[in-house]
Amino acid sequence: MSKLLFSEFKLSTKDAWKKQAENELGENNTRIGSWEIAPDLFVDPYYTAENIKSEQILDLQNCQKKNPGWLNIPFISFDKPWSTNAKIKSSLESGADAVILDMEETDLVKSELSKTLHAIRLSDTPIFFRTTINSENLFEEISRGAGYYLKGGIYNDPLANWMRTGIAFEDAVENICNVLDKTKMMREFRPLMIESHVFHNAGANVVQELAFLINSTVHYLDKLTDAGISPLHALNRFFYSISIGTAYLTEIAKLRALRFLYRKISRAYQVPDELCQVFIHAQTSSFYDSAHSAETNMIRSTSEAISAVIGGCNGLTVQAFDHSFTKPTEFSERVARNVSSLLANESYLSAVADPGAGSYQIEMMSLKIADAAWKLFLQTEEKGGLISCFKQGFIQSEIENSWQKKIADLNNGEIMIGVNKYKLEEDSINLPDNSILKNNSADFVTLPNRNLSATIFKK
Predict the structure, then answer these.
(1) For a designed S-S bond to 259, which of 24, 63, 184, 360 qualifies (C-beta 3.0 to 4.6 A apart)?
(2) Is the pTM higher than 0.90?
(3) Count of CB atoms within 10 A of residue 124's CB?
(4) What does the pLDDT average to over 236-244?
């Protein structure tokens, strides 16, 4: 009979680990204590099998991504049709697997999509169109001459736009229903994005980010199913777009918790587990970018990217280190694109579907975050749902408390390199401070697009 792997090592208990850590740390053993990843949500520095129920872990792991790898998806801003076309082709030849085409300020006529997408097969290459253009009109334009099958989607969350600007979203949801109906056979074209960026960039903590994201999901699903879209169709044809912050382990757990929460929602709509696998697009955060030592953003975004792929994203966008405060250069875009390629081809993280599985620490953090997010989700639903809570100011108030805590932490000793420590003030760029909640033209307070660096540097 073969010898069990690692059988020569004794089983280590949590108490044994703690005693060893106390012995090595000596007078600094107070550092062994638990840490807070969200208000009243604490995790220990070490977990073993004795702390975790195997049924819970199995349920969590069964929700995770089944196929290894991810798409490298850089942002490309529309300029002119032919120059944008050349830039897309160059990115695809240099490591990109797909592209987010930023058309936010461009109308359909000026974009001349037939030229912009010339010689790019949309049946082979996923293109995600970032725009607030009527999605039905956009689909008609991109499907013209593109064949019967498209990959990619529409990078737009009308509900999130409403929370940012106060612009009505009801017509946009109706247009999405029409596009979903027209793309029934296009399994890899997703006409709806549901994003966490609007919460993340306003200062939400990880629990709030996931809870309000699930509230958004349920609102959309209710609207789509009321319009005649089947739950199975609706659940498989949107994609999540998630900001990944700097808390390395927490962000890994956040993505794994999201899939667990998505499974809870799909079961509530009575859709079989095996028929539902959500596409998660992750992008490095702009909330934590420093304008005062911009090169530190390269290291920060690399850490965020590793969290994203270990957490199980399907697509990854690493943003250029200078994108928050200027137009990215060819160099900064190439560095960003290559981070994803390096993680896939040199670190071999693309060879495993769920790298975080089996880590008691990550498994426990994932479950704790999911449980806390589910409680806040239910609390929001009991108060009337996302729309009602947003109009009443509940969501803004919750996120504002989290934002103020982040500012207080940085002012009281927490370190962010290039933001409140080791910053090069002579190289600093003045960023607009969008930290104040504003009414804009809406009857309620909208969520600001914040940056810690801009706020801290002005204090």
Answers:
(1) 63
(2) yes
(3) 10
(4) 97
